[in-house]
Amino acid sequence: MRRIRYVCRPGILLVLLLVAGGLLAGCTVEITSTPAPASSGDGGGQPGVVHAPAGTPVWAELGLTGRLFFVGYDSAQQQAIYELDLVSGALRTLFTAPDNALLNEVAAAPDGQQLAVAYAPPPPEGEIQFGFASIYTMPADGSAAPTPLIARRGETETFYNISWPLADFVYYAHYLPGTGDLGETIYTARVERFYLPDGQPAVLAEASSWPRLSRNGARLAYVTDANELVLADADGGNGQVLLPGSAFPAVDAPFFSLEGGQVYVSAAVTGATLTLLDRLLGVRLAEAHSVPSDWWVFPAGGGDGAQLTNLYEIGLYGDLSPDGRHIAFITSGGVFVMNPDGSGVFQLLDMPATGTLNWVP
Question: Which residue has the higher pLDDT, 218 or 177?
Answer without folding.
Answer: 218
